[in-house]
Design the sequence.
């Protein structure tokens, strides 16, 4: 049985029918072809699937698609506007925080939420904000530097 | 020539796609008409397969194929198609018996993932669980069952044991009684290193589709040409009928190096006549690849001054049920097990032991972290016993540049003492230590690529832009960026006019592998030759077209310099080719030759060296180890892109903190992984990183690669465990020879009073 769902993703309205057991991540990736959010652990530990749901960072693998009915979702694809990168995206590149890149969409969305709620975080606050996002390529310090630099740039 | 592009931290090529979500990894590829694949495995490691009942599963709507070993066509390799990079020992699907937890016994292809998932759950496997070989001792026990059927091991004299292979390396005139007598301090210990998993954030994903030529496979593989060879071989086809498309891996670390489920996917695509897609869960990825665990028994002899007299090493590596690349891991790591030290007498015996566990494969460092943990810890113990500073004992044993430390092999190719000095200075080795704190220092030395080859094609287009066709994989190390910088430098073209084409065996020429930190050196050198080939051709073309003597023409900084004027590439090509147009094609190759009687088949092109120093604080109440400061010094010849080298060193070091402090796969008595998945198997998070992480690069331009570069990328992981182990000893007075140094293990050691604090003088 399929259930109708209407939601806005990156400002665009979508109405579709989904299976009750499908996650928001599956909706985004398989139905809307927004593959920026990644699947790794599928149990809310790695953060690779992080998106904003009504402005809050969530693991989209733990949210059912039907739970997003009527809600507003922002994914990594929704950050750059008119070809201009978000300050976080620029900072990640400038600080050399990106290696293989697989964790980066989730990492940037978690950082986006962090800066929205705490525009001038300390280093421990940045670390706490990103503690749910795993990276295996880097030493994390460049990611922390990038978030700090983005916060400064927006000041 | 002006140096515009080398040594600059140029922005990552492909970076924008990675921060915008546009980068397409394997699981993001969408093929029309694709079938979704799920694997069926058992809830134990070893079982006899009696029957597989597909009837219920086959009734599920949308199920198109259920494959078991019995459904596979025979192959030239025998009745059951088997494959592997060095030993064709792994069946495409389990046949007769399963040999590790998670080994697929069947695969389902269906129109939807839900359908495949449901069908998978309905496949009934009639099996009888059998006792499994899960430890080194069990593997060595003659009473234990054999992991592999002796029949598939052919004439191998070890076919009736669980020893896949073994190696003996020995050198030194004084080995034996003389060496023993000279050694005034002999230390003998066992060190263990856990099974760990790669945990790339991208789980493995594979697609395959039949095409008019044969079959195409999409896999985030590090070595597309190995995969092409292995798939062709298992199908009994010529290489030309197999095309591998390798999207940039979302992290590799060795786990995506060697063929995994691609042969199965090829059979599924051919059987169904449809594209097929398999995305592993993280749990299935844990079951597909891991690092080999090890127990290293080591006797080390030193004279009173702390100079090494001998190393007597027996290293047992518990590999998995199939060889994968484990034999190479064990032989290569044990050959250089004595580390970067003058070792006048050495006896190294190493064994690769089969077990009913996940097939172990390459993992960043390729066996070296296991050996380094033992040898470096021995040095620290000797320093403690002899009353010598841990820096000093290393200083006394480091070879000078040009000195052979493994007889007849590549000599010391760097200023290794400088690395030690820089690490000591940066960590503040002489500064007073507050209580519960300690410092440690360690080296790690890895043999780089031996016999291997890279080919590359550089195309200078009609408008003066260029495309480079290279078989290297960019798995995050930044190969695209560095190779683009090299091409930009050599051709004098801005990077944004260069396309770096990778990862399609139907387009790019042969490359051995993206492993052993070899790409910058091998592919980089090949690329320089290809660019110089283009420039030679341009001179000749300019001479013929413009009627100027060839020796009066120079090609530099992207221009054709004539005695009286400059011409752009585009103008020369226009003048030369005219309206039909054309392009200039340069080719390059770099090969390190195969030496039949060398233990590794060739000398390492360079040594990858890391010196790490750590300062830690141990909470005596809980056993928690906090890394206050970690210093990494790598001897890399020349950093073509410093930010990327530092990023690799830092990332490798934090990965090293994983196996040092927290990571270990835990098996139950049935061979199941108990901590299967991210909830129970923890890797370092941003909150586990050192408070200060400092990466230092030594650039003496003394490498064999472009502009004096050596390879990098693995170094950072090599020396972490022993540096931290020694620091924990100094901080808490405990000697622990088993990794990881979990809070529980450290706390128990503190409570139980195991080991003692070495009293190292600090005098440097």
Sequence:
């Amino acid at each position: 049985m399929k259930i109708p769902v209407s939601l806005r993703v990156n400002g665009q309205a979508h109405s579709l029918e989904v299976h009750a057991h499908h996650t928001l991540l599956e909706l985004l990736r398989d139905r809307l072809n927004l593959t920026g959010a990644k699947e790794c652990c599928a149990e809310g530990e790695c953060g690779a699937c992080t998106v904003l749901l009504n402005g809050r960072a969530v693991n989209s693998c733990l949210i059912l698609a039907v739970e997003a009915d009527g809600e507003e979702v922002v994914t990594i694809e929704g950050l750059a506007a008119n070809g201009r990168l978000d300050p976080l995206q620029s900072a990640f590149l400038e600080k050399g925080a990106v290696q293989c890149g697989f964790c980066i969409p989730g990492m940037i969305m978690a950082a986006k939420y962090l800066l929205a709620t705490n525009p001038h975080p300390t280093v421990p606050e940045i670390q706490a904000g990103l503690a749910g996002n795993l990276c295996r390529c880097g030493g994390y310090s460049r990611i922390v530097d990038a978030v700090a630099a983005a916060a400064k740039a927006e000041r | 020539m002006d140096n515009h592009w080398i040594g600059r931290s140029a922005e990552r090529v492909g970076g924008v796609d990675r921060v915008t979500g546009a980068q397409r990894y394997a699981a993001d590829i969408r093929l029309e008409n694709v079938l979704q694949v799920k694997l069926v495995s058992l809830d134990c490691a070893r079982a006899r397969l009696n029957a597989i009942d597909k009837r219920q599963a086959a009734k599920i709507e949308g199920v198109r194929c259920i494959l078991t070993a019995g459904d596979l066509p025979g192959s030239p390799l025998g009745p059951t198609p088997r494959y592997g990079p060095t030993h064709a020992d792994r069946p495409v699907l389990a046949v007769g018996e399963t040999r590790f937890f998670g080994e697929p016994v069947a695969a389902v292809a269906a129109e939807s993932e839900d359908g495949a998932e449901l069908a998978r759950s309905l496949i009934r496997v009639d099996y009888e669980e059998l006792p499994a070989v899960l430890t080194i001792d069990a593997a060595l026990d003659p009473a234990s069952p054999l992991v592999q059927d002796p029949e598939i091991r052919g004439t191998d004299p070890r076919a009736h044991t669980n020893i896949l292979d073994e190696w003996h390396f020995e050198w030194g005139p004084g080995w034996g009684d003389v060496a023993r007598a000279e050694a005034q301090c002999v230390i003998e210990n066992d060190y263990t290193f856990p099974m760990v998993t790669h945990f790339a954030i991208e789980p493995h994903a594979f697609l395959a589709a039949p095409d008019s030529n044969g079959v195409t496979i999409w896999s985030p593989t590090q070595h597309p040409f190995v995969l092409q060879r292995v798939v062709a071989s298992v199908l009994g086809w010529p290489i030309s009928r197999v095309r591998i498309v390798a999207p940039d891996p979302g992290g590799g670390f060795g786990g995506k190096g060697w063929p995994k489920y691609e042969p199965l996917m090829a059979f599924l695509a051919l059987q169904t006549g449809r594209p097929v897609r398999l995305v592993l869960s993280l749990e299935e990825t844990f079951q597909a690849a891991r690092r080999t665990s090890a127990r290293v028994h080591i006797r080390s002899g030193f004279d009173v001054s702390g100079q090494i007299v001998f190393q007597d090493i027996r290293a047992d590596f518990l590999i998995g049920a199939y060889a994968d690349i484990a034999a190479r891991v064990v032989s290569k790591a044990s050959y250089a097990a004595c580390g970067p030290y003058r070792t006048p007498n050495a006896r190294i015996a190493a064994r690769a032991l089969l077990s009913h566990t996940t097939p172990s494969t390459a993992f960043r460092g390729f066996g070296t972290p296991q050996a380094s943990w033992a040898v470096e810890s021995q040095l620290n113990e000797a320093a403690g016993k002899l009353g010598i500073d841990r820096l000093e004992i290393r200083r006394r044993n480091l070879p000078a540049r040009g000195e052979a430390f493994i007889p007849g092999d590549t000599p010391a190719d760097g200023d290794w003492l400088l690395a030690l000095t820089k690490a000591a200075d940066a960590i503040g080795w002489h500064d007073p230590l507050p209580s519960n704190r300690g410092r440690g220092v360690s080296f790690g030395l890895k043999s780089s690529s031996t016999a291997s080859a890279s080919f590359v094609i550089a195309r200078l287009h009609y408008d003066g832009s260029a495309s480079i066709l290279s078989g290297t994989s960019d798995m995050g190390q930044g190969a695209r960026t560095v190779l683009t910088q090299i091409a930009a430098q050599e051709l004098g073209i801005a990077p944004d006019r260069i396309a770096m084409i990778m990862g399609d065996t139907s387009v790019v020429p042969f490359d051995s592998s993206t492993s052993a930190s070899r790409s910058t050196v091998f592919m980089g050198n090949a690329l320089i030759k290809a660019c110089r080939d283009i420039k030679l051709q341009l001179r000749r073309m300019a001479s013929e077209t413009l009627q100027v003597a060839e020796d009066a023409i120079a090609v530099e900084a992207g221009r054709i310099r004539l005695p009286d004027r400059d011409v752009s590439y585009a103008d020369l090509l226009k003048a030369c080719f005219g309206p039909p147009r054309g392009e200039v094609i340069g080719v390059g190759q770099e090969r390190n030759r195969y030496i039949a009687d060398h233990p590794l088949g060739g000398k390492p092109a360079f040594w990858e060296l890391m010196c790490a120093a750590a300062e830690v604080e141990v909470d005596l109440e809980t056993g928690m180890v906090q890394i206050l400061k970690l210093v990494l010094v790598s001897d890399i010849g020349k950093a073509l892109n410093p930010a990327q080298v530092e990023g690799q060193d830092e990332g490798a070091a934090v990965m090293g903190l994983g196996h040092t402090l927290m990571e270990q796969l835990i098996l139950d008595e049935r061979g199941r992984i108990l901590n299967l998945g991210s909830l129970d198997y923890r890797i370092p998070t941003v909150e586990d990183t050192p408070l200060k992480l400092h990466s230092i690069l030594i650039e003496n331009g003394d490498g064999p690669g472009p502009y004096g570069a050596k390879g990098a990328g693995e170094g950072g992981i090599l020396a972490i465990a022993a540096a931290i182990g020694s620091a924990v000893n100094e901080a808490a007075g405990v000697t622990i020879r088993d990794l990881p140094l979990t809070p529980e293990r450290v706390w128990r050691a503190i409570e139980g009073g195991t080991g003692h604090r070495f009293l190292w003088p600090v005098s440097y």
User: Anything to note?
Assistant: The beta strands of chain A are 2-9, 12-19, 50-53, 56-59, 72-74. Residues 104-117 of chain A form the longest helix (14 residues). The longest strand of chain A covers residues 2-9.
